[in-house]
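Suppose a colleague, Dr. K., hands you the sequence of a protein chain of 408 amino acids and asks what its three-dimensional shape might be. Before reaching for any lab equipment, you can write down a predicted structure in token form. Begin with the sequence itself:
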Amino acid sequence: MKIYLVGGAVRDKLLKIDSDDRDWVVVGSTPEEMMKQGFTPVGKDFPVFLHPTTQEEHALARTEKKTGSGYTGFECYFSEEVTLEEDLRRRDLTINAMALDESGMVIDPYGGQRDLEHKRLRHVSEAFSEDPLRVLRVARFAAKLAHLGFRVAEETMQLMSHITESGELEHLTAERVWLEWHKSLTTPSPHIFFNVLRDCGALAVLLPELNNLFGVPQPEKWHPEIDTGIHTLMVLKQAAQLSPCPQIRFAATVHDLGKGITPQNEWPSHKKHCHNGLALINQVCDRFKLPNDYRELALIVCEQHSNVHRAMELRSDTFVRIFAKIDVWRKPERLNALLTCCHADHTGRKGSEMKPYPQKAIFEQAYAAAAAVNAQDVIALGFKGKEIREQLDKLRAHQIKMELNLTH
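The predicted structure, expressed as tokens, is then:
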């Protein structure tokens, strides 16, 4: 029985980056022997065991055979005779198909170290095309490692295009797609995830609402990049630089979906996109069963980003209405999330990447002034019921007017 550290932990160790991804493969053992050694079985589809001390997962070396559609259509085979090289061969990318033995020696049968050196994401074998989920995994790894200069190998991109054309992506569950999408939102370059999916045709299958933005023009005066899809990924890139929050990054991704359904005879104007995008965001959130906090922030950003951009033109009572609409009095953190997305939208344009966004400070000033109004003081004046809210709003608008030196 031999135990090897495999996969992401080996890759990240060689890249000298932090990793909490520790997977172990056991060669030359059986389930009975593992349990005799004190390991606890936890695997359903194939034999995985928890180490008696560290509780880390240890899987018996195995091979897989394609038996049906999708990423679950596999037959797993394991025995004492399955070698480490056979186990590594079933993995997706060469940089994930390396192992470390107990002495610290790297075992690299498929050229993973060479691909690390050349910053290349390359599939291990033709068996790559048997699992459609790997299209999303490669896109995620591209987003994770793009800042280090990694790119998807041309031959791997061709296989990903082949998987897309085969219709296999349609067998992926919404939950698995969202899992990879969500992981991509925590990487340094989440926009690369969508670039890769688009390059192999997968974006049109998995997220047509976003894919439809490419080729849709915007006014060149405000958007020198013109293309709405390009703008959207620029916004996501900027959002990732401004915040590590995945909810903010998601909202930045979908904030302009409404532009994808603007009638062509209205191009390049998109007057109703803030309203039209709401149904599309709900559609995406329903399909992928997203958590409510992702949906709620995305809807707020879609509906309000144009208003925030016009901060210099707003009336004091309009600020109060916006604050009420986003429920900022109960959830003050929403304001910063909204403003961060709007900041990213502003800088996510060609030539505007470094431009300041004074609207953020204006909204923060307005909120601070309005928040200084005390509801208890209003109640002490004798106002009751509905009158309390009306008087609060009047006082808040007055405070904003004074703070921002507004004439209305």
